[in-house]
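Researcher: Please translate sequence to structure tokens.
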Amino acid sequence: MIEKRSNRYVQKIVFNGVFILLAVICVFPLLLIVSAAFTEETSLAVEGYKLWPSKFSLDAFSYILKSPKQILMSYGVTIFVTVVGTIGGLLTTSMLAYVIARKDFKFSRILSFLVFFTLLFNGGMVPSYIMISKYYHLKDTIWALILPYIVIPWHVFLMKGFFADIPMSLVDAAKMDGASEMRVFFSIIVPVSKPAFATIGLLTAFTYWNDWWLSMLYIDDAKLTSLQYYLYRIMNNIQFLTTSMQAGNISIDISNMPNETARMALCLLAAGPMLVIFPFFQKYFVKGLTVGAVKE
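Model: Translation complete:
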């Protein structure tokens, strides 16, 4: 009996030690990025990355934030697109997933096939660009950053798997009480599906927040430039100036201009808000991904 307890104690220590080590490995690169963002460029080039800045400097942030109006405007655009896109995506994705999860709906297989087909094949970049800009007339509008990601097939099937595990007796009981399909969905299905909604909502929010591709394709107006694309342009400008200086194509002195430190600062500005939000949804995120994975 004592040996069993001691073995369990040793196993707990080993497992906890392994997971602590994995957590440190995951957090370590983030700490290096934070430290590098607040390090002087020359010090970073000479001494390399450290967990604590050898020479503290805010040059990277001051260079990026030289035009605070533009970056604040880009933040506003990205926040609006993320919030509206996530709400719209959750609404359309959940309704579509609920319909194809209902076994008593005779067109569920056809809709499932259509969604699955778009998961494997798409029209390509050129047809999509022509459709959005020429037919839908969404170029240089905020909706060009929202509608292309409003329904993501993988999210539909993920939510469908969750809805398929909800007992149909709940739906039948509600219908016997005279509830309509919309009432059943919003009053019964949605409340019991919070983990699925949290999971899909978080994934959709990540998609909108990290996107720069749609802004590059469809947006020419600086007022509608997303945060990720604005930071992407800053990084490209820094790289272009650095490459041109090394090739001798420009004569101005940009040796003190932040390069690597600016990249690290861009990472913090781009990923910071999502790093703060993610822990609040983590428990729902894990539950939403694992529920429905085991069939009895």
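Researcher: Any highlights?
Model: Confidence is low (pLDDT under 50) at residues 292-296.
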